[in-house]
């Protein structure tokens, strides 16, 4: 059985992330706790709404009720990227070349490395942002679809339309697919590498609840999702992605919903967190399960693997967090 080093924090903890082998825990109150030769605290926000790990650097990006967007380094130092007085910032994204994006109302803003800011206006509120892995290209999820913008040009947006409310967005690691989370208990995808003008749709439906967590496997062959009493894992290795193919259902538990999913950084192993605080590890190749943590006080709100893949940090909505050593 893997060993669990607990960390009890006060109140709702929004996210858990690793920067290298240092675990960070972000509370809704606005403090960032890190375990680095003892527990250390950064006072980041007057109310924190979102905390993500920038996929392009060893930093965290946060947004808060105080209208600030921060970049937080491995040493806990916080740098203000943007400040929007009297507004809440709940959507942020990290991109190539140290770019940072955030959403405010019907606009997304990209702050580039030189401090210049580019604004992209939409017809509806921006609910999710993601950068492509190559080139400064950003996707903005909104009602009835997604807008794709090239940051460095004044070219018009490429609109990917699909009726309904799109609440989050992700590019596949190879950039061939774009997938959104929807208010309507579904995922929707587009194949981006088709012929000019041919962005084929991918409908991924049948969830009993909203999908709030997505994770790509290390080479992008699989996309895991929450929103059901099992992790729903879609196959993306074929040229048309999951079209015509059934997903895997991993870690099934009767009537207990999956709240978070996180793929291992090197192997096709998935960590699955549940609303009762349990965490399972499941191997894709044979669906073999390992219990990583027994149920706790609250539901799992975040999970992150260390760069070595030996440690898994987790957070909960009741504050009972910790780090699991799977090599133990």
From TrEMBL:
**Keywords from the named record:** Repeat, WD repeat
| Highest taxon, organism lineage | Bacteria
- Name-wise, this protein is WD40 repeat protein
Supply the source organism for this entry. Neorhizobium alkalisoli
